[in-house]
Amino acid sequence: MGGIGRNAKKYSLPLLTAFWFSFLFLPFRGCRAAGILFVTLAVSIPFLTYVSNRLRKMTPRMERLQNTARKWGRFSPVLLLPLLAVPFAVDNYWVDVAVLSGIYVILALGLNVVVGYTGLLNLGFAAFYAIGAYSYALLNTALGLGFWSALPLSVGITTVAGFLLAFPAVRLKGDYLAIVTLGFGEIVRLVLNNWDSLTKGPNGISGIEAPSLFGAKLGDLSSYYYLVLAFVVITVFVMRRVEDSKIGRAWIAIREDEIASAAMGISTMRYKLYACAFGAFWAGIAGCLFAAKMRFVSPESFTFMESVLILCMVIIGGIGSITGAITGAVVLVFLPELLREAQMYRMIAVGSGLVLLMVFRPQGLFGRKNVSLGS
Amino acid sequence: MLLQQIINGLTLGSVYALIALGYTMVYGILELINFAHGEIYMIGAYLGIILLAFFTAIGLTAVSLPLTLLLVVVLAVVICSAYGFTVEKLAYKPLRSAPRLSPLISAIGVSIFLQNYVMLTQGATDKVFPSLFGSGGFRFLSTRVSYLQAAIIIVSAVMMLLLQAFVMKTKTGKAMRAVAQDKTMASLLGINVDRVISITFVVGSGLAAVAGVMVAAYYGLVNYFIGYIAGIKAFTAAVLGGIGSIPGAMFGGILLGLVESLGASYVSSEYKDAYAFLILIVILLVRPGGLFGKAPEEKI
Fold first, then answer.
1. In chain A, which residues have their Cβ closer than 8 Å to the Cβ of B277?
2. How far is CA B251 from CA B56, B241, B258, in A?
């Protein structure tokens, strides 16, 4: 009897929620859409509750999995071998998707430094991505610099921009910081959109050269894939080294307790600045790779939604975890490609996914339990 | 010209102020930037169009236009309040004791969800609000004010006065102020904190719905992304006046509307949307407490 009562309570709540939501959407599309929404929600809410309960129960097993992954991490060069074979194994379309996901892995790892390690919520990360892409595009088309000389220059510009924008922002805390970074992101996009004489406005810059290596053009997709893969490997390697370095530990200390870490003699301002500049550095690299891949940049690629998407990659995989950021980036790039018909629903899924994740598993899929997001 | 821009700015500003009130009340109580608030306003604008079309179809508009408009506004307020209530219960209430950034991320999630849901169900193209008021207006000190502008300014002013009276004079308002000051203490004194939070969301969403319907009528066009930019601007207005302060939100909204309207005509209209962000950044850096609020104190 008690069991039935408990079950009734367990299932009536999701059903009630589903009904309520479909009722609320009634004025928008009429009865049929509301009915479809009700059925979808009535099926998916209990399913998601079930999955999240299972995940909660599986936490010890997940932790064991993580430990195994960490152990295997030592052999990661071996694990790279299958990745090397990708251009031979699949057709060009999927190599293209893989290149894109590689760029996003670099971006997510860069944002992970700011949001994950240091605990500063940045809602305008696409601004640095944009600065990297645009400075590469301009150096290449206007000054005729090649990939290897334009790359360090534009990454330098992006890092300096990250440092300068962070300089006033790091004095703020929590959600104020989030809103100011959002403002910076929008201002950068508006400037790119309106400074016609430099950026060609909404039309964007086209005719960017493909990179070359030792005189050989990396024009075709598979060689570009290896270039991006090399950058991803470098990023992961550096991130791993940084995570356990003095600076990395200082960042994590600031995230966990800013006052305590200041009391331990960490200059919190300075390390926050480092984090922002370091994050921007990787966004700059990703921007260059993006511009060189697309041969075209326009302000449309760097909207607020782009910032949110990168943030989702960091959060879904698990805040503050390298594996998590990589998983998040790969999943969020590949998933919509796999579900091409469902692409319209991608942002809806991202939105509700963020809410569900925060409610049921705030540490993300691979995140560590003890991450605290601000105070 | 100058006076005309001031009137335009006042109209825009009173809309920002109405939305800003929702942000400021929620922030005052939960210390949460309710990102979904802009979407509630957008839904209000859509509801204005949908309900008006419905009432026109059943022939009510032909009988009495003022009555129809009143019905449209009231229904939009009721439905939007229901949205606000639901969003709070689903996305924020389970996170009441979570770290501070979790509800913020959840709020961003709700905002993305609502925006894209409306896009899917209503289409990505602009929806048109039928022009009901013609181009009627009256002369005021050598400039022309349309009836619609006058109505927006007056309705906003009345709503703000009503809200002020509600918060200062009623028992519920007193409970809201108590919860904003100290949640634990308020609950110890027998105030149902969850209920007060729900009321705050309902009232804020209602105000946003009124703003949405008025904007739909004023501009005549509604799109699924109007909520994001209006939300950011209203939030700027709330911060400008001092977040958590109700008179501050009103003042901040009107000031922002004036700055935007005058800036667009005298400085550069291309960067119209950037003014709000610039003001926001400068205010947060120079005077984080806003014009009327107290600077946030640092607790150790």
1. 183-184, 186-187
2. 37, 6, 11
CB-based contact (8 Å) between B82 and chain A?
Answer: yes
B288 touches A at CB < 8 Å: yes
**C-alpha triplet A326, A297, B108: angle, nearest 5°:** 50
Domains of chain A: 90-360 (1.10.3470)
The HSE-up count of residue B189 (CA atoms within 13 Å, CB side) is 11
How many domains would you assign to chain B? 1
Q: Which residues of chain A have pLDDT under 50?
A: 1-3, 369-375
- What per-residue confidence (pLDDT) applies to A371? 47
**CB B230 within 8 Å of CB B240:** no
The number of angstroms, rounded, from the C-alpha of A14 to the middle of its chain's C-alpha atoms is 31
**Chain A residues 325-354 with CB within 8 Å of chain B:** 344-345, 347-348, 350-354
Is B6 domain-assigned? yes
HSE-up of residue B100 (Cα within 13 Å, Cβ side): 18
ipTM of the complex: 0.79
Is B49 a member of any domain? yes
**Residue (of A160, A303, A165, A293) closest to A225 by Cα position:** A293
Distance from CA of B101 to the nearest CA of A (A): 6
Residues of chain A in contact with residue B47, where contact means CB-CB under 8 angstroms, are 27
CB A206 within 8 A of CB A295: yes
Question: Among all chains, which residue has been given the structure tokens 């079950």?
Answer: A7
In a domain, B225, yes or no: yes
Q: Shortest CA distance to A294 belongs to which of A217, A356, A234, A204?
A: A204
- Owning domain of residue B112: 2-160+193-275
Q: Which residue is it, tokens 């700059």?
A: A284
A117-144 per-position pLDDT tens digit: 888 888 889 999 999 999 999 998 888 7
Let me know if residue B271 belongs to a domain.
yes
Estimate the crossing angle of helix A304-317 against helix A346-360, to 10 degrees: 40
Interface contact flag, B51 A187, Cβ < 8 Å: no
